[in-house]
Amino acid sequence: MPRHLRSRPVSTAIVIIIVVGVPLYVWFAWRQNQKRKERARAVAAAAGLNIDVDTKSPPPAPFDLMQRGRSRKVSFHMWPTGSQDSVFHYRYTTGSGKSQRTFRFTCALIDVAFNAPHLTIGPEGFWSNLGQMVGIRDIELESPEFNERYRVSCDDERFAVTLLDHQMIAWLLSDSSGSGSIRFELLGSQLLCIGDPLDIEEMPGMLAWAAQIRQHMPKVLVELYPRRAA
Hints:
Layout: H1 3-46, E1 50-52, E2 70-79, E3 86-94, E4 101-123, H2 128-133, H3 144-149, E5 150-154, H4 157-163, H5 166-173, E6 183-195, H6 203-211, H7 221-224
Antiparallel strand pairs: 1-2, 2-3, 3-4, 4-5, 4-6
């Protein structure tokens, strides 16, 4: 059989695969996404939370995390009625081509009763490179164990020292804080808690955990750093 005739069945098969397979793949991906949204709605309802399952831009607050990369997106945003607290998935992308990477997190955004200067707390490595680039030095505290485990940077060293009193340091060093697995960023009246990606079922638990952080913070911050009038 001539070569050009032998190639026709192969070419026809490729065309059929493309014509039939691509729409099937798109439909399957769409259906899986719909099932995930339905599951997320059920999880939120069971926890008494509101939810926005659509993908959208991140909150307007200029957190360092939300200035990195491009294609910054929030998804599966959950929050209690009448509260500023929330939990959501967050992602951003860096690089291009073979060097392109997408970073994913689950974040809780918590309202606090004072007006904080910009502060970050996290293990060496997560904030370190960014801090060094903009000339922010690491703030050392009285606890050698804390200094070894965490990096702290802040626009106002007095605020950092006041926030990180003995009670707050003890909590950050305990298993209850996540033992360094959660990174924190304070700015204005909001605390951003940044963790590795969680399953949707675990998100209400992260929100409840993050809301309890307020009780470990020094009460004097409300007087020393009062919130601005709305």
